[in-house]
Every structure is written in structure tokens, then in C-alpha cells.
Amino acid sequence: MKRVAIFCGSREGRDPIYMEKAKQLGEVLAQHNIELVYGGAVVGCMGAVAEGVLENDGKAIGVIPEN
């Protein structure tokens, strides 16, 4: 697998575990050289996944739709 698409909330959620696990997921992706394609947000769970990837020298591709 070269890439994975993840689209999740741009909010943190009620329990801090969501942010923690989202960031851990990003770390695991980077460690396995799997690129992230995500919703492009820098906040919430979506941002945490991207942060986990980028802080571990992975690659993240943000997709933000336009009208």
C-alpha cells in the first residue's frame, strides 16, 4: 500500500483519546512509508493525523474542495 485516504472530523471530539489516537495513526503511517491523503484541515482529528505524519517525515496531501 502506497497511500491511504483519511477523512475525519475537523473537531477534537469530546474525549482527548480521539486526538491522541489520530496522531498515533499518522505516526504509524509515516513509519511504514504510507502517504496520507486527507481533508486538508489543520485542526481537529484530521489535523492530528496529518501532524503525526509530518512530524515523522512522512508525506501528506491535503484535498480541499472548492465551490
Automatic annotation (TrEMBL):
SUPFAM superfamilies with a match to the protein in the record: MCP/YpsA-like
Species in which this protein is naturally found: Alkalibacillus filiformis
Superkingdom of origin: Bacteria
InterPro entries for this protein: LDcluster4 (IPR041164)
Gene3D superfamilies listed in its UniProt record: 3.40.50.450
PANTHER family: LOG FAMILY PROTEIN YJL055W (PTHR31223)
Family: Belongs to the LOG family.
Lineage: Bacteria, Bacillati, Bacillota, Bacilli, Bacillales
Protein name listed in UniProt: Rossmann-fold nucleotide-binding protein
